[in-house]
Amino acid sequence: MDWDDLRIFLAVARADSLSGASRRLAIDASTVGRRIVRLEQVLGAKLFVKTPQGYALAPEGERLLPHAEAAEAALSDAREALSGPGDLTGQIRIGAPDGCANYLLPQICARLCEDHPGLEIQIVALPRVFNLSRREADMAIAVSQPQAGRLVVQRLTDYQLHLAGHEDYLHRHPPILTREDLRGHRMIGYIPDMIFDRELDYLTETGADWAQLTSNSVSVQMQAVRTGAGLGIVHDFAIPFCPGVRRVLTDAISLTRSFWLIRHADDRRSQRMNRIADALAQGIRAEVARLQGLIGLDGPSQEWA
User: Fold this and answer.
1) Residues 48 and 55 sit within 8 Å (Cβ to Cβ)
2) Which tens digit of pLDDT belongs to each residue from 137-167?
3) Which of 33, 96, 137, 199 could form a disulfide with 101 if both were Cys (CB 3.0 to 4.6 A apart)?
């Protein structure tokens, strides 16, 4: 049995399609299909069932999956043992909600790449929960702690959010001194039926009944606030990137949330993954503290009074 065929088998199993596997492997989809057929012929077993939704594992494929994953882990361990404790190398895919992915991970990962030139980092920014069992990412950052699955979960840091608006918008409207002053203001927030985690349901904490301008993306919401479209709950660590955005009612409306680092349980044996996780955790803690520390300093990030 060829390991390369097993590698392709894992990619199809995780992507549920030949096209998805081909994108992950950077090879042609027809080649992926031929290699799966070849592996099935070698094993004398049907590994996948083609469905309208894609390629689903057949019973024989389900039985092969844990052995293929064990072979993948063993190969990774062997490479790690040969490379020693020096520079981190290879590809790592990090999944994160788009607020973290846009405002924290770029600078953190840039420093990691500078320290380890052989490391290739992929940042996947999606407003949803990642499926690590299907290896949509090698590790993921989440806003709540998962309660099921074979996962390693590590609390990274707390972060703060506040109601904010651009100074141009605030200049055009009466002062906001109490929650009652929010009546009549245009609110910006999440599309209600696309909130993928209860920790993101911010609007109720403002006392507003609904938001007139909504998006499933934190970054889109922040850009709407930045352009003066209304008021929204924003991450404090994002405010330094948006000149002119000012917090309001900080005593009355203040939210605290947490970031969690989530990894597949099998990765605990990998010193490489442990080192990357440690570096990522330290980077996120330091960057959140640095950016939030800018709030209140003279300049565009201070509170609107």
Assistant:
1) yes
2) 889 999 988 877 778 899 999 999 999 999 9
3) 96
